[in-house]
Amino acid sequence: MKLLKEQHMKIFKALVFDVKRFAVHDGQGLRTTVFFKGCPLRCKWCQNPEGLSIQRRPIYFKNSCIHCRRCERFSKEHQMKYENNRPYFNLKYEGGFDNLIKVCPSSAIRYDSEEYDIDKLIEKIKEDQIFFRDDGGVTFSGGEPLMQGEFLTTILKKCKEEGIHTAIETTLYASLDLIKDILPYLDLIYVDLKVFDENKHREFTGVSSKIIKEHIRYILESEHKDKVIIRTPLIPSMTATDDNIINIANFLVNIYPEVKYELLNYNPLASSKYELVDLEYSIDKQYKIFSKKQMQHFNDIVYQTGLKNLIIE
């Protein structure tokens, strides 16, 4: 009996790297957005690099550090090293990092995520339930929330039992069986279709686009098609090309001309997060957000394909 309970707890826990309250860009109304850790894609422009790995890890906030070196004094063998006036963590260390977090007096060392069970997360979401009355709700994002699919399915069911509007931000890079399981419990489905060309999709995201396109087709040919908003993030020299936008729009219009489609302007602010997780931002920092004139050009391209429901912010 104990073993079964332990297995249940293991299955029904998830790693969440952020819970953003009062969000207004992740669906209709005021929303609580839950960011799950783990993503199978490695987009060169990723907006949430702290959500890429499925593993929980410590992160270092240099602006909070007072350089007391207590972390070094209390560290265990092979756990970290202190160089260049800062700690570097051995992410292959299997003993955890609680000791380093506890001894840091300025909270410069913290975990990148928190572990939630179903009850804890549903209570966290319900804290904002009073604000959901005017078309608000909860949005599950990431990372890729489908990577923690069993937990996601269960929390979606719980939300529907509580009468909470549910949305997801996903790449659909997962099994079709999982997608079929969650569709009945979703009110709104944001799907990223970033790059149409297969070779370029592999180059820019690290994975094939075939599964993503197949799953988009499945949903747009199903009873859930009007829940869907397809989005393309506009990344200079990568996704923000006429050919890419035309190919995506033609693909969509041939499946369901009424589908909602949105072009997301480039956001250069994500680069500041990369240092936290010891990664380098691979997009040239000279690139800026697109002007209104440039965005209008991209919008005009979409309209010329026959798509009828372009969302313009």
Measured between the Cα atoms of the first and last residue, the distance is 54 Å
User: Based on DSSP secondary structure assignment, what is the total number of beta strands?
Assistant: 13
Structural class assignment: alpha/beta
Overall mean pLDDT: 91
Number of helices: 10
Largest sheet: 9 strands, mixed
Q: How much of the residues is beta strand, in percent? A: 15-25%
Envelope shape: globular
Low-confidence stretches: 1-10
How are strands sequenced across the largest beta sheet?
7-1-2-8-9-10-11-12-13
Radius of gyration: 21 Å
Order of helical and strand elements: HEEEHEEHEEHEHEHEHHEHEHE
Summarize the structure.
The protein is α/β, with parallel strands linked by helices and 313 residues long. It has ten helices and 13 strands.
Features:
disordered N terminus; nine-stranded mixed beta sheet; 313 residues; 21% strand; alpha/beta; two-stranded antiparallel sheet
